[in-house]
UniProtKB/TrEMBL annotation:
The gene is tcaB. Keywords: Cell membrane, Membrane, Transmembrane, Transmembrane helix, Transport. The keyword Cell membrane applies. It is a multi-pass membrane protein. Pfam families: MFS_1. It comes from Paenibacillus marchantiophytorum. Gene3D superfamilies: Multidrug resistance protein D (1.20.1720.10). Residues 12-398 form the Major facilitator superfamily (MFS) profile domain. Belongs to the major facilitator superfamily. Bcr/CmlA family. This is Bcr/CflA family efflux transporter.
Length: 409
């Protein structure tokens, strides 16, 4: 790849990473403010975590709508409309009177943010394939994971001179910036002749095709289940770090951001070894690391280890996510270029829908227990490995057997 192409890829990756980062900013930026919001609305931990669950559901289910829309109408128009909705919903969150309305608007905010996630992956598939797509997705994930490094600290910085409401005003300003990028900085990547035509039934037919593709579903489940473990981490650590270990909001933001750095390390590893190792081999390495690190997390919380032990274990788990993420996305979308938006939607929906299930379970034993946190993360690792064995490995074995039989004959 020459320097001109490299510069174009980097520019595109930076733009798409900005939209990919909208999800993490929407989820992470207010995490350090959760205890303050709980006091403001005079509610409990479960209701506050329900606001997180609502945004995750919006991010997940919204992709099922935004993906097909982007296949039908192109990438830019649905993205532009969604960014405008994001501005309105974000600023509205700052002025709501009760926790119930806050939860509802957080869902709408999640739906609006979902367009950035699903369409950025679809644009990547429009532009690249094969090893080049693996490398580009790795670069995209590496850059977009600056968001977990920045967003908690940005949230803490805002609340140091403002109330928690200032966080949502800042998110609204971010939406304005992304609206400008969509209008003046993003080219349409899906030509009219390549767009999907048809009505609602055509959309359902595309989803039916994806759901009956065993390999696609295997990669989608591996990716989605492990990200459900990540969302359990996102929901649990504000209370584990601050209530159990007594760290300040600022220290929590730094510790939380380090896990974003870990995902970046994992993504960089993929970028370096892609083309040297087969993507499936890289995936198996990531799954092995996720099992070891999640088991270490479980042992750390059951034995009531110190904060450093939990931090190191979660750091290694985050590295495994950085390895598995880009490879599983590439392998899942490789054979579905014509409906890249819908394929991207299924991948993203699994992540956030499963995350919406695990997030509230973290607090089931109260805000002073980390045991559900450890159990959930280890369980997600086991289920991801099970999905790989049942849906992917068996097909690979059958395919290898067929090839061997043809060679012998």
């Amino acid at each position: 790849m020459n320097n001109k192409l490299k510069n174009h890829s980097l520019r595109l990756a930076l733009i798409l990473a900005a939209f990919s980062a909208l999800g993490p900013f929407t989820v992470d930026m207010y995490l350090a403010s959760l205890p303050q919001i709980m006091v403001f609305f005079e509610t409990n931990v479960s209701m506050i975590q329900a606001s997180l669950t609502a945004s995750l559901l919006g991010l997940g289910l919204g992709q099922m709508v935004m993906g097909p829309l982007s296949d039908k109408y192109g990438r830019r128009t649905p993205l532009l409309i969604s960014m405008i909705l994001y501005i309105v919903s974000s600023i509205s969150c700052a002025f709501l009177p009760n926790i119930e309305s806050f939860i509802v608007v957080r869902f709408i905010q999640g739906v609006a943010a979902s367009a950035g996630l699903v369409i950025s992956r679809a644009i990547a598939r429009d532009k690249y394939s094969g090893v080049e797509m693996t490398k580009f997705i790795s670069l995209l994930i590496m850059i977009s994971n600056v968001a977990p490094l920045v967003s908690p600290n940005a949230g803490s910085a805002v609340t140091s001179f403002s109330s928690w409401a200032g966080v949502f005003v800042l998110l609204g300003l971010l939406g304005i910036l992304l609206t400008g990028i969509t209008t003046w900085g993003l080219e349409e990547s899906l030509p009219v002749q390549h767009r999907v035509s048809g009505n609602f039934m055509a959309v359902m037919k595309n989803y039916n095709r994806l759901f009956h593709d065993r390999m696609f579903m295997g990669y989608a489940l591996v990716n989605g289940i492990l990200y459900a473990g990540v969302f359990a981490f996102v929901a649990g650590t504000p209370f584990i770090y601050q209530n159990i270990f007594g760290v300040s909001p600022q220290t929590f933001s730094i510790l939380f951001a380090m896990n974003g750095l870990a995902i970046m390390i994992g993504s960089q590893v993929v970028k370096r070894v892609a083309g040297r190792l087969a993507e499936r081999s890289i995936l198996r390495i990531g799954l092995s690391l996720s099992f070891i690190s999640s088991f270490a997390i479980l042992m750390a919380v059951l034995s009531k280890c110190s904060l450093p032990a939990i931090f190191v274990s979660t750091f290694l788990f985050a590295i495994s996510i950085g390895i598995i993420g880009p490879v599983s996305v590439t392998l899942a979308m490789e054979s579905h270029g014509q409906i890249a938006g819908s394929a991207s939607a299924v991948l993203g929906t699994f992540q956030f829908a499963l995350g919406a299930v695990t997030s509230p379970l973290v607090g089931i034993a109260g805000e002073h227990s980390a045991i559900p946190f450890g159990i959930i993360i280890f369980t997600t690792s086991l289920l991801a490995i099970f999905s790989y064995i049942v849906l992917i490995r068996r097909v690979e074995t059958q395919s290898d057997g067929i090839k061997k039989a043809k060679t012998n004959t």
